[in-house]
Amino acid sequence: RVTWGKPIEFIFSLLGYMVGLGNLWRFSYLCFKNGGGAFLVPYLLSVAVFGLPMYIFEIAIGQFTQQGKLNAWDRIPIMKGYGYACIVMTMMSIVPYMLVMAWGVIYLYHSFTSNDLPWTVCGKITLIVKSSNTFLYDTNLHVPNVMRFCSTDKPWNTQSCISYKQWLPGNNSTILNDSSLVQNYSDTSILEVKIFKNPLTMTTNCSLPRYYVLRLPNEQDSIYGGFNWPMLICLVLSYLSIVAITIKGIKSSGKVVYISATLPYLMIIVLLIRGLTLDGALNGISKLLIPKFEELANTQVWIEAASQVLYTYAIGFASLTTFSSYNNFNNNFYRQALILVPVGAFTSLLMGLMTFSYLGHMASVLGVNVDKILKSGPGLIFQVIPLGFSLLPLPQLWSVLFFGMFYFVAVDSVFSDFDALVTSILDIFPRFKGTGRRRVLANFAVAFVLFVASCTQLTSSGIYIFEFIFYYGASGIILLLLALCESLSVGWLWDVNQFAIDLEKMTGDKLSLWFKLCYRYFIPAITSSIFLFYCAKWTPLKVGDFVYPVWANLLGWILSLCSLLWIPGVFIYVLYKGRGSMKQ
């Protein structure tokens, strides 16, 4: 089997995955939402109970068998369905992740400008507002003394577009576009219209992602909607970059990780240092770190901490096992994991500090609380953070740095899973192995299938398809169920004592008693409890104010079962076809 050119390439590949998209937009929001610094308690406990033991096993089974995610589970034939389940889930996770990567590409493209960043200005708008003391501006209200006209050079903006400079506190009289816009308002009236609670109708910052990037229909003018051709170009470029990186397997991707794994850390440090020098940065960071221990009584906090750990360390995905299969048999991955896992937790915290330093500065400049501007998921990266950079000197520079970092973070997240997916397929069809023309054709074939699936997210309903696939195709609860199956496999079917012998064969180190207890008892008990609680508290998927109908949620569970049903299906098949007694 092909091996890494140098052992350090394996380390860089794992580091790159840890600085992934889930860390960038998910950890900060979850930490703030679930008790600030108190969230670190269940998070770090989950790292110790879930993260480190499962991380060691995912690497161990790949190195021991020298096979990808699928064939590695021939070691435990009755559980080979787990390998199929992980491959299917990995494939479904790539589809929304590639769209996120394309979003980053289009923002990066628009950051290279000597003019104002396009999400900070309205363009040529003629807008007359007559008001006395307060400013009531809501597109849901019919204000008789307001005349609205549309943007001509930035058609994604609505008639109600207001540049962020017009609602900065203290800017009580603003004239734009040759005296065509006159506004008088107080600080209190800005908060009354809840700019940040309903940003999609209030700020130019959010008009670009809503009408240009997501291509949602413009309710006022019906300017946008339909298929998103600019995003199609970005999606094509994103897929081509992933194919180019993995076209020769680890012989090419092993060299790319030197840049893709280290550059994001360098940019994060640069952005963090700049963020810490801004007014209000410490206030933002305090919101992240000050603990609210009463939140620990909420079971949902522990569920989200456990699922975030699985995302951070790629537990249940195909990449860890595939990457470790390229190691030499005697590589000491055990000690490497003991170092890398704490680095992953530190990376999550570092990204949180960077994000909240800029959120704190935004809150200080705009005169509001941090929780008024904090959004989860893509909204944090594509609506709030870009506006935060707009408040800095040389906003184009900081925007390029941030979205450049975002691109490499996306590359690290996606190419690992893509390469693992292709490798697992090639393990099934050995005649396509190698670095020649057949490997290239395999890469393009897999990329084409995933590309077609990603194109379904480029319509006006694309954001709902995106959330649907992400929630049901690769959600935290699926990862928890996969972690349950994996822990039962190593703890009882492989037998944890035999696993300890095999690990010592490879590394020369003895497996800790703590890990043995986790594999056999702690992980199965905790994951089962979390799943039962999740079922009891389950609610339909909701995006904004839109609640998915019953049929859509049923379809979502079918999507989840597309991966999970492989486990009992193969289990029954092996029992039926296998020779010997039930125990054998």
Automatic annotation (TrEMBL):
Membrane topology classification: Multi-pass membrane protein
Binding-site residues for Na(+), renumbered to this chain: G16, V19, N23, D412, S413
Pfam families the record matches: SNF (PF00209)
TM region(s), chain numbering: 7-27, 39-61, 82-109, 227-247, 256-276, 337-359, 380-398, 441-466, 472-496, 517-534, 554-576
SUPFAM superfamilies assigned to the protein according to its UniProt record, in alphabetical order: SNF-like (SSF161070)
Classification via PROSITE patterns: NA_NEUROTRAN_SYMP_3
InterPro entries: Na/ntran_symport, SNS_sf
Positions in coiled-coil regions: none
Keywords linked to the UniProt accession: Membrane, Metal-binding, Sodium, Transmembrane, Transmembrane helix, Transport
One biological process term in Gene Ontology: sodium ion transmembrane transport
Location of this chain's protein in the cell: Membrane
Gene Ontology cellular component terms for the protein in this record: plasma membrane
GO terms for MF: metal ion binding
PANTHER family recorded: SODIUM/CHLORIDE DEPENDENT TRANSPORTER, TRANSPORTER
Protein name: Transporter
